[in-house]
Write a structure and sequence with these properties.
- This protein has 302 residues and is of the alpha/beta class.
- It has two domains: 6-113, Elongation Factor Tu (Ef-tu), domain 3, CATH 2.40.30; 125-287, 3-Layer(aba) Sandwich (Rossmann fold), CATH 3.40.50.
- The protein has helices at residues 42-45, 93-99, 138-147, 167-173, 192-203, 214-226, and strands at 6-11, 14-29, 32-38, 51-54, 67-75, 83-88, 106-113, 125-131, 151-158, 176-181, 188-189, 207-211, 230-234, 250-254, 260-264, 271-273, 282-283, 286-287.
- The strands form four sheets. It has a seven-stranded mixed β-sheet. Strands 2-3-6-5-4-7 form a six-stranded antiparallel β-barrel. Strands 14-15 form a two-stranded antiparallel sheet.
- It is globular, with a radius of gyration of 19 Å.
């Protein structure tokens, strides 16, 4: 194992490690791949909601930009040392390269990155909503919430049964689980936003945590607001560097002062209060700069 190449640095005031991680397990999980890496020092620092940035490609074919993935779970100690798990959907060349790795292959990993989910100081009823493999970080979050005495329910949705992730696992970590699929192949036919109001009313939940596509997070935020709950959402903006340098993942978020600023979701996020995200700026998969945002282009007064 190559565990000697560990360089510690600090990003955004938190501890981050860069380490050569050895793949010790890879398995299919429906439409996705579940990968486990030995990542010494990383597991001890990570919190639910944070992510890792993985290099992709071999010595002669490495891509310039890393690929970022939410941390599914960590194990601070074990037979091989601390491990970190991620869930990958093989879409492009980078993720296809990752999912083709075999046991004992090595990947350069940077993490943990970003801001984690905030945890309530007192026991509360919480609902965790995941879309597709966006549900990956929610099981670890559920475990942390239950350790604090919170009642936890999960709502998992996807287009089809094959694109759901972790339904069996959810039943171990949550007090109740509701499943939806667009095509009705399992669970309730429809979207998570169709069943969420009933779950919130039944549980009296004060907090909704969400992770998944931006359209889903917008609807989760709207439902939470209508039911008097606070939404905390982990956004899925495309991230390239993962450390706030490239500005690829900027998005409009209103601050406590009500002023909209373009912030880096990899550093200021990926977790935001849902009611502070300017969802009106997102359309057709494109994020636009709202006219009232700080630094927005101004029309000339000719």
């Amino acid at each position: 194992m190559s565990h000697t190449d560990t360089r510690r640095t600090t990003v955004g005031g938190g501890g981050v490690v860069q380490v050569t991680g050895e793949l010790i397990a890879t398995r299919r999980a429906g439409a996705y791949h579940h990968l486990t890496f030995v990542a010494p020092g990383l597991a001890e620092l990570a919190r639910p909601g944070q992510f890792v940035a993985l290099s992709v490609g071999g010595p002669t074919s490495a891509n310039l930009l890393r690929r970022c993935f939410s941390i599914h779970k960590v194990s601070p100690s074990g037979t091989y040392g601390g491990t970190v798990d991620v869930v990958v959907a093989a879409h492009g060349a980078g993720t296809q390269w990752l999912t083709a790795l075999r046991a004992h292959d090595e990947v350069d990993i940077v993490g943990p990155l970003g801001r984690p989910f905030p945890l309530p100081k007192e026991p509360l009823a919480c609902v965790l909503v995941g879309g597709g493999y966006g549900s990956a970080p929610l099981f670890w979050l559920a475990e942390a919430l239950r350790e604090r005495g919170c009642h936890v329910e999960m709502v998992l949705g996807a287009a089809t049964e094959a694109r759901l992730f972790g339904v069996v696992e959810a039943r171990r970590f949550a007090d109740g689980v509701t499943v939806t699929t667009d095509d009705g192949s399992t669970g309730t036919r429809g979207w998570v936003s169709d069943v969420l109001p009933d779950v919130l009313r039944r549980t009296g939940a004060a907090v909704v945590y969400g992770c998944g596509p931006m359209g889903m997070l917008r609807s989760v935020t709207q439902v939470a607001a209508a039911e008097g709950a606070v939404a905390q959402v982990a956004v899925e903006e495309s991230m390239a560097c993962g450390v706030g340098v490239c500005m690829t993942c900027v998005m409009p978020v209103a601050g406590k002062d009500g002023v909209t600023r373009m912030v880096r979701s990899c550093v200021e996020g990926p977790v935001f209060r849902g009611d502070r995200v300017r969802w009106d700026a997102f359309a057709d998969g494109v994020c636009r700069v709202p006219a009232d945002a700080v630094g927005a282009p101004r029309e000339s007064g000719h």
